Amino acid sequence: MRILVCKNYDEMSKKAAQMILSQVTLKPNSVLGLATGSTPVGMYKQLVKMYNDKQIDFSEISTFNLDEYYNLPKENNQSYDYFMKENLFNYINIPKENINIPNGMAKDVEAECERYDKSIKDCGGVDIQVLGIGHNAHIGFNEPTINFERGTHLVDLKQSTIEANARFFDKEENVPKKAITMGTGSIFKARKIMLLACGESKAQAIYNTVYGKVVPEVPASILQFHNDIVLILDEEAASKLKPEDYKIV
Ligand SMILES: N[C@@H]1[C@@H](O)[C@H](O)[C@@H](COP(=O)(O)O)O[C@@H]1O
């Protein structure tokens, strides 16, 4: 695990965007695995800026998002489909047909999950996967559980995740209780993984991810076994790590 610590959120976002830029420059038809949540918003802003400055071209890029709420229409301003358009897709030149997000409104969820996994495979797999992390170390919507899930699946969200995401909804009752997410197995298959975390509230989850036992109760701990993973943290999220284990950038 490579761990880079940035002074603050802005620096973290810039570093993350630079890594995407290198990936896209080296391979213009890269497959990007994308995440939602407040953490990657700054990175998306940087990518839009790079696009406006003609530094990056998304015309051959394909994307796969990690997850989507179940039974929340795309048009709802809290759907992840809406989030991605608002934060990235509306402002760059990615072809619409190259964008993939699980369909949370699918009637046959099992078929939708199979279709999603097959699309990732048919695209040649994810080149670089962007991840945020939940307070309980969930990645995508893979909540702490008793076994690592392989492929895309429907999950029941933990009460703590519902509470954490309630800040985006009018009322907690409106937060969906289920989501469709890529499995830890699918995430792990990405050739490169870049996990972003900021703020003190993520420090314990980061500590457990880096030093804890690899167990499905700490979903992100599986990343210890990945051979090309970088954690990009701000100082607060890194505050429980030993200084000899990270590089300040
Ligand atoms: N499904 C998303 C995750 O992909 C994200 O990492 C997490 C943390 O969000 P935030 O970055 O807002 O703390 O929130 C949600 O649960």
UniProtKB/TrEMBL annotation:
The alphabetized UniProt keywords are: Carbohydrate metabolism, Hydrolase
GO molecular function annotation: glucosamine-6-phosphate deaminase activity
* Catalyses which reaction(s): alpha-D-glucosamine 6-phosphate + H2O = beta-D-fructose 6-phosphate + NH4(+)
Q: Note the superkingdom of the native organism.
A: Bacteria
Show the coiled coil region(s): none
Q: Which residues form the Glucosamine/galactosamine-6-phosphate isomerase domain?
A: 11-226
> TM spans, by residue?
none
User: One Pfam family from the UniProt entry?
Assistant: Glucosamine_iso
What class does this enzyme belong to in the EC scheme?
Answer: hydrolase
Q: Does the keyword Chaperone apply?
A: no
Active site positions? 67, 136, 138, 143
Task: List the pathway annotation.
Answer: Amino-sugar metabolism; N-acetylneuraminate degradation; D-fructose 6-phosphate from N-acetylneuraminate: step 5/5
UniProt xrefs under CDD domains: GlcN6P_deaminase
Q: What is its EC number?
A: 3.5.99.6
In the record, the note on similarity to other proteins reads: Belongs to the glucosamine/galactosamine-6-phosphate isomerase family. NagB subfamily.
Show the PANTHER family listed in the entry: GLUCOSAMINE-6-PHOSPHATE ISOMERASE (PTHR11280:SF5)
> HAMAP family per the record?
GlcN6P_deamin
Describe the task this protein carries out.
Catalyzes the reversible isomerization-deamination of glucosamine 6-phosphate (GlcN6P) to form fructose 6-phosphate (Fru6P) and ammonium ion.
Q: What is this protein called?
A: Glucosamine-6-phosphate deaminase
Gene that this sequence comes from: nagB
